[in-house]
Amino acid sequence: MYSKEIISYLNDIAPESENWVQALEEEAIEHHVPIMDKQGISILQQLVRLHQPVKILEIGTAIGYSALRMLEAHPQASIVTVERDQQMYERAIHNIERQQKQQNVDVILGDALEKETEILAKGPYNIIFIDAAKGQYRRFFESYLPALKSNGMIITDNVLFRGLVADASEAPKRLQNLANKIDQYNQWLLQHPSFHTTILPVGDGIAISIKKNE
């Protein structure tokens, strides 16, 4: 992880975001909604630009911030995104319609582990972005792997979990189990025989898993 000074420097020299982006970031702060930081979202957008996906699956919509930023990077993409929290779902719908992107973003209300049949039917996907319940990362990955196209990419956010994965015993007791689960996911992911995975110490940690040629 870089120092606060470096992160501040990168944020300072970055181009100013459009007004609608700033409004979403302010909404997230006001309502205590965790969203990717500026450097994390910048990496996510760059991956989307490089991969040029036809269809993206996002697990964890929140207020629609990441979906809209991915669409900003590649306006031709189609995004299926799932959110289990009713209030977040409604906020996401509002924000997506406000940007007139409802034709590009299909928001599903429900738990991704319970909506599997519906979500798989809307695939296949070129990119899967996992940003939901951290303790379920492996289940999300395995559940939706069949819907990932050849040479597809799975991106997982928050895999360094504030640095607590390095030594879960140093974490507050209430977070130790979760830190251990994420650590186990990271180790499993890096050893997965069907993927090349790199973990970037950007934001709260981003894992990029690219499917090997079959």
UniProtKB/TrEMBL annotation:
InterPro entries: Cation-dep_OMT, SAM-dependent_MTases_sf, SAM_O-MeTrfase, TrmR_methyltr
Chain positions recorded as S-adenosyl-L-methionine binding sites: M36, S66, E83, D111, A112, D131
Annotated Mg(2+) binding sites: D131, D157, N158
Pfam families in alphabetical order: Methyltransf_3
Domain of life: Bacteria
Keywords tagged on the record: Magnesium, Metal-binding, Methyltransferase, S-adenosyl-L-methionine, Transferase, tRNA processing
Keyword Cytoplasm part of the UniProt annotation: no
Membership in a protein family: Belongs to the class I-like SAM-binding methyltransferase superfamily. Cation-dependent O-methyltransferase family.
Function field: Catalyzes the methylation of 5-hydroxyuridine (ho5U) to form 5-methoxyuridine (mo5U) at position 34 in tRNAs.
Protein name as annotated: tRNA 5-hydroxyuridine methyltransferase
Organism of derivation: Gracilibacillus caseinilyticus
Gene that encodes it: trmR
